[in-house]
Amino acid sequence: MFVKKIAFISLLSFAIVSVAQERNLKNIKKLTFGGDNAEAYFSPDSKNLTLQVTNKQFGVQCDQIYSLDLTQPITDFNNLKLVSTGKGRTTCSYFMPDGKHIIYASTHAANQACPAPPKPKDGKYLWPIYSEFEIYMADNKGQIVKQLTNSPGYDAEAVVSPDGKKIAFTSIRSGDLEIWTMDIDGTNLKQVTSGLGYDGGCFFSHDSKKLVFRSSRPKTAEEIKEYKDLLAENLVAPTNMEIYTCNVDGSDLKQITNLGKANWAPFFHPSDKKIIFSSNHHAVRGYDFQLYMINIDGTGLKQITWESEFNAFPMFSPDGKKLVFSSNRQGAPRETNVFIADWVDTDEAENIQTPNLKKHITYLASDALEGRLVGSKGEKLAATYIEQEFKKLKLKPYNNKYIHPFTYSYRTNPHDTISKGVEIKGHNVMAYIDNGAKNTIVIGAHYDHLGFNEHNNSTKPNSKGEIHNGADDNSSGVAGVLELARLYSQNKRKEKVNLIFALFSGEEDGLIGSKDMAETLKNYFPNVITMINMDMIGRLDDKKSLIVGGTGTSPLFPDLVEKNKPAGFGITQETTGIGPSDHTSFYLKDIPVLFLFTGTHQDYHKPSDDEDKINYYGVTNIVSYVNRLVDAIAEYDKVEFTKTKITSEKKMPKYKVTLGIMPDYTDHGDGLHVDGVTEGRPAQLAGIKEGDVITKIGDCEIKEVYSYMDCLGKINLGDVKEVNFIRNGKPMTVKVTF
């Protein structure tokens, strides 16, 4: 990232727009209307559902089992048909092989009243493990024809194998919550799992050979104690669960997810090669469950739902054409309804591949490329690598060639105003996909970096001669461009726009390469409707903060940026088209721009910006985000360009002093977050550290980066000021000599 312009970033708060981007789901239809409706599962012929309902408006005080005929018009609660007794509490119903009987668990035999739900402990949400639950079979008229379990403690969560031979369920009969199987008539009981923890919510694969289930497996002494203490009270805390698979006999146990938080409600994709499940692993705060798909080897995580804050209990119809799930979309607050949708398997080529991103970043940020300084041997090696990748993908060379040289003069001594400087030859690498469209979108990033700090752009003192590998800045953005080039060249659909993939050099010396391209771009592609720039997308923080610049350069952008964002990400929209990277060159040619940036950090422009610090979860999600943005923008015949202004309060003030920190440019609203501290500068000498939040310098209040700059502008060399900051929630004050 071009350090000399980084102060131009401006920030904008905005209203949240909740719009889905759900490519796998078509013709979504609401099946229930009010109350709490969940765990809907298909009959073998796909014509009926069985589901769990609470609806106090209609006298259903706690969960009861109902069936729903999908062949009839569905308009209101009266379409539901009661299957359970209407007494006690029920859970987890499932059709038997004949489609005429339903199994479910119920407490009605022990107590006909609704058992009270547990209250949270220490703020933790808890699930009850009612010891009164036994598993029953009822006919489609609601008459119980058989009791399948009769043992002390919890027996519930029963499902039937597609071949009609087995029932799997969760039981505490062994002293822990394990998965068991029995024959379809209730005989031949066998324990499947045995690890300490809650194993439950299992489903069979379509070939009836495997089970997929959720599991909380406590590991530390503290976790084990908490689990056992809660279990003694017939409770579990479902806040830390992962997805597992095993054979029906319990062998070949595999942990599929390792995402943290609550991953649950898994179900096999019709191919049995993927698993759909609900997860809140992405959520930074609050309640947010979305559906995800993952390969059975744990790769290829993909978000399926985007709308609302709760999506769970997915089940494919036996023919694989429909998906039923529960969601709080399209309803009143605290209401959950059942939805059905046509399932559409999307092109596998359109899934962002994390291994590809890692391959590109690892090579480009290796010592072999010596920091990719513009004009160096390392830059040429990088250019050759990019060119070869474009050729592998059979992309067309931009203006008849992939590599486009440019020259400029550069003064390595910033105080030298007399000499012409040295002539440097850089190389842009560009290719395109010609879809025969009227409009074109440019997807770009710079690939040059600081080399051995020959041009004095390092933030580490006395670092000449050290390789600055620039993994985040900007191997991360280059990898994103190359992966999108692969996606768009190998997918099975034809986009509504032409696509240019542009990798620039000379960015660190002043956006030289992108300026060179932008000068003549409209001669070849007069209808460029957007330029999207990825610069430093590799260091997503634990709050999942992402800055998207340029949102004011077209009226379309604010809504598109918000509705397509990855789940759990906090987006700071910056309106200005002028920024610290290559999109500026295109904005100045009246082209709408977007700029994606995960923020500065303590390794920014230092030799320590290495590949092992890259957040690949972040890079993968951001590149997928750009994919969605490109597709969304491509739907518009015209993308209006709007000039933006840097308002007076956002202009970079003149100041004579430095604190010696790397600021976080995201507006957190509680002060200036310190991303890094430079050795030997005032902040470090006074004891300020990375992660501190500066709130005041002297009498000058600080809310974000711009008020910080304003405060610095009022300080003179040699001034001593008190600096107030927050560290780990505690206010602190130090004296700083500027």
UniProtKB/TrEMBL annotation:
GO terms for molecular function: aminopeptidase activity. Keywords: Aminopeptidase, Hydrolase, Protease, Signal. Residues 1-20 form the signal peptide. Residues 666-737 form the PDZ domain. Residues 428-625 form the Peptidase M28 domain. SUPFAM superfamilies: DPP6 N-terminal domain-like, PDZ domain-like, Zn-dependent exopeptidases. PANTHER family: PROTEIN TOLB, PROTEIN TOLB HOMOLOG. Belongs to the TolB family. This is Probable M28 family aminopeptidase. It comes from Flavobacterium indicum (strain DSM 17447 / CIP 109464 / GPTSA100-9).
